């Protein structure tokens, strides 16, 4: 936008909506092809207006709903992966042993390794990725709901003697 040029109401709404969705001046600037400084100025000037407060709450509620759906899906997937791992771990271990017991004429090392990798991908090896995603969405949802994302629980480990004295 040219310096000193008034931003039309349609552009203001586009900026505000984008900001409520992205929460980022640079991303909004890129999406709308408007200078970052203009985005920042328009946002700060309009953020406290009632019409945008309602829009912000609406977009925040939409995010909370979406985050809840994602958390539920991820926990369902996590549960299924854990169930699969429990049900088939013994079988998968035996298959892995069988793969490496194959004679070289049946399968070379590269082929054995490829088969082992496929089997291992069925196992629960990437659990951390899923739990990280669940935790991230949980934290973002909590922030959107105005809740704390930290756990202020303090754990104290005591020796056996100290525990007996405490009782």
Descriptive report:
Helix content is 74%, strand content 0%. The chain is built from seven helices and no strands. It has helices at 9-22, 25-32, 36-46, 50-101, 109-122, 127-144, 160-166. Helix 4 runs antiparallel to helix 6 (127-144). The longest helix has 52 residues, at 50-101. The relative contact order is 0.08.
User: Portion of residues in helices?
Assistant: over 70%
Could you say which overall geometry the principal axes of the C-alpha atoms support? elongated
Mean pLDDT: 79
Rg: 27 Å
Please state roughly what percent of the residues sit in beta strands, choosing from under 5%, 5-15%, 15-25%, 25-35%, 35-45% or over 45%.
Answer: under 5%
Runs with pLDDT <50, length 5+?
none
> Helix- and strand-based class?
mainly alpha
Would you count the extended β strands for me?
A: 0
Question: Strand count, sense and closure of the main sheet?
Answer: none
Number of helices: 7
Order of helices and strands: HHHHHHH
State the separation between the terminal residues, measured CA to CA.
72 Å
Structure summarized in a few sentences:
With 167 residues, the chain is mostly helical.
Q: Key terms for this structure?
A:
single chain; about 170 residues; mainly alpha; 7 helices
Record the SSE blueprint.
Elements: H1 9-22, H2 25-32, H3 36-46, H4 50-101, H5 109-122, H6 127-144, H7 160-166
Helix pairs in contact: 1-2, 1-3, 1-4, 2-3, 4-5, 4-6
